Amino acid sequence: MKILYLTKYTRMAGSSRMRSYQYFPYLEKAGMTVVVKPFFDDDYLKDFYAGKKNISTVVKSYLRRFFVLFSVLRYNNVVIEKEIFPFLPAFAEWILKSFGIKYIVDYDDAIFHNYDQSQNPVIKKFLGNKIAQVMRYSGTVVAGNNYLAEYARKEGAKNIEIIPTVIDINRYPSKNNNSNLALPPNVILSEVEGRDGEKSEFDGQSLPPFRAVEKSDSQFPPNVILSGVEGRAGEGSVLDSGKFIVGWIGTKTTFEKHLLPCREWIKELQDQHSDIHFHIVGITEDMDLGKNVKYIQWTEETEVSEILKMDVGIMPLQDSQWEKGKCAYKLIQYAACGIPGVASDVGMNKEVCIDGKTGFIATSNEEWKAKIVDYKNDSEQRLRMGANARKLVEQKYCIQVTSEKWIKILKE
């Protein structure tokens, strides 16, 4: 069985890496041959991350994708990440439908708002309904959360599956070996179950073994406990270094949109508590967030080890239609390491950061500060919520669970 993946980016970009590339070993293990043709290449991404615009690489991307379309009939299935041609009408998707190709289209963002809420009247008029058309022409829409799925349903998509953006649990050791602090193994965190409320087949069990190549890619063996960051009862770094680490991970774009507006309370918190420090992973220049802030370069190889240095992870979001399409990936990463979060009450955040169980929801500057201080002052609560967060990831937000869903979709 041959599968063509039309991703938007190479694996250098987090969205494509998590939504597509990390699944390829599992699909191949299931007997599928995967061919991936990204729209934008590494050169485009390097320029984009550096704040440069290179028209020639964009033109090449459109031409490259155009010629790829002549090969689609060679494949048993076609998976499209978001759309075939950004900022062009859905003519290519319509052609696939006309040829009887029931392609699968995957979304982890509300990109339809790029069009229907565009400030450019031409884009809004001619492309406002584009993603709705892409969804209707498809055989299956895979949505990262309920907001995206509801849009697809409203616009007439025939088949809709919800698959969140997930992590590989083998790459994420738990910072604290405190499984006894978590909810009992037979308890399902019902507030975050899917629409059918079904139980994960792995709940209350050890995760199944996977082929050696996946495990060899892990930064740490699954059974390793990081004693260097543990104190009493596996307590985090606050006892070892005298610092309580509040962490955030992301790109410059998400930093400027979501974390930079938090500058005031972040500075106030440092002034009020000299032992609270912030680690900002993904930003390398000083962004004037205060004196106790460390800016850390992101790499795929070191992201997990940087998260493991945190005592709590944060995910503030601006409250807008676009953010409702976000898939809470930062919170899932923190939770996978047994680190509880503090998050805005926006979109999917509250499904991962269950208030009082796996984290706290903050709705004001004062709440952001208070919740972080609560974690600092109550280590038992922090450890318990971190253990619950890890359990939640094992139940719902790891590729060891969702890969089976993708295999089923592709084989139908």
What percent strand?
Answer: 5-15%
Total beta strand runs: 12
- Uncertain residue segments: 184-188, 190-240
Helical amount: 25-40%
**Structural class category:** alpha/beta
In the sheet with the most strands, the strands line up as 2-1-3-4-5-6
Mean pLDDT: 87
**Tell me about the biggest sheet?**
6 strands, parallel
Query: Which of globular, elongated, flat, extended, rod-shaped describes the shape?
Result: globular
Tally of helical runs: 19
| Rg (CA only) | 22 Å
Q: Report how far the terminal alpha carbons are from each other.
A: 12 Å
Please explain how this structure is put together.
The chain has 412 residues and is an alpha/beta fold. The chain has helices at residues 14-19, 24-29, 42-49, 55-68, 91-98, 112-116, 121-127, 130-137, 146-154, 212-216, 237-241, 252-259, 263-272, 303-307, 329-336, 349-352, 365-377, 379-396, 399-411, and strands spanning 2-6, 33-36, 77-81, 104-107, 140-143, 160-162, 244-249, 276-281, 293-296, 312-315, 341-344, 359-362. A six-stranded parallel β-sheet has the order 2-1-3-4-5-6. The chain has a six-stranded parallel β-sheet with strand order 9-8-7-10-11-12, sandwiched between helices. Helix 13 (263-272) runs parallel beside helix 17 (365-377) and helix 15 (329-336) crosses helix 18. The longest helix is centred in the C-terminal third of the chain and has 18 residues, at 379-396. 42% of the residues are buried.
